[in-house]
TrEMBL record:
<dbReference type="Pfam" id="PF22725">
    <property type="entry name" value="GFO_IDH_MocA_C3"/>
</dbReference>
<dbReference type="InterPro" id="IPR055170">
    <property type="entry name" value="GFO_IDH_MocA-like_dom"/>
</dbReference>
<feature type="domain" description="GFO/IDH/MocA-like oxidoreductase">
    <location>
        <begin position="61"/>
        <end position="105"/>
    </location>
</feature>
<protein>
    <recommendedName>
        <fullName>GFO/IDH/MocA-like oxidoreductase domain-containing protein</fullName>
    </recommendedName>
</protein>
<dbReference type="InterPro" id="IPR051450">
    <property type="entry name" value="Gfo/Idh/MocA_Oxidoreductases"/>
</dbReference>
């Protein structure tokens, strides 16, 4: 039998910055839907005792990265940086695309488009999203259904090849992390994975 240490009943839970009860019974109550549909106090506490969501972060075998920076260089010379940190009070996403004639920023429910030539700034308000990943999940499902209902031969947002490429980048980033930041050539990495299969 495996002993699982949970926040429930822990002597230092009240002062722990990673207290699961404080989060799931407080501002993060909606996230408790990951382990219970009924968001009563009784069911949330029961879920924290019986699932991994109540496990002690200090006595856990979870080895998922809690912060990282990934630098990417694409064939045409474009570069991208992905930065992720789990130590933030609020979950949020920001995207910034910088070009030679302008810049696009997406954050806090709006998209800002800045034109360096005309000096015009445009702000697009994004409707509040209620589904997972800031509305991205429902967008992917809509795209998939559109393809199923009227496929025109073009690659959509949810194509298998696009998903494989994005996952491949994530796997390569993890391989780089495990190899002390060694650069990974995506084509070579892909070929090695094919050999292993």
């Amino acid at each position: 039998m495996k002993l699982v240490c949970t926040c429930i009943g822990c002597a230092i839970e009240a002062s722990c910055p990673y207290s699961a009860p404080r989060f799931y019974l407080g501002e993060g109550q909606a996230w408790a839907r990951h382990f219970t549909e009924d968001l009563t106090r009784e069911n949330i506490v029961k879920g924290l005792k019986e699932t991994n969501y109540g496990r002690c972060v200090y006595k856990s075998d979870n080895n998922v990265v809690d912060h990282q920076v990934v630098n990417m260089e694409f064939t045409g010379g474009a570069t991208a940086t992905f930065s992720m940190c789990g130590f933030t009070r609020h979950q949020e996403r920001r995207i910034q695309i910088m070009g030679t004639k302008g810049e696009i920023r997406g954050e806090e429910g709006k998209i800002k488009v800045m034109d360096f030539v005309t000096h015009e700034n445009t702000e697009i308000q994004i409707p509040e999203q209620t589904s997972g990943h800031g509305g991205g999940d429902s967008g992917i499902v809509r795209s998939f259904l559109k393809e199923v209902c009227g496929y025109n031969g073009s690659e959509g947002l949810t194509s298998a090849s696009a998903s494989v490429r994005s996952h491949l980048m994530a796997f390569a980033a993890e391989q780089s992390r495990l190899n002390n930041g060694q650069s990974i050539e995506l084509d070579d990495f892909y070929k090695k994975l094919l050999v292993q299969v």
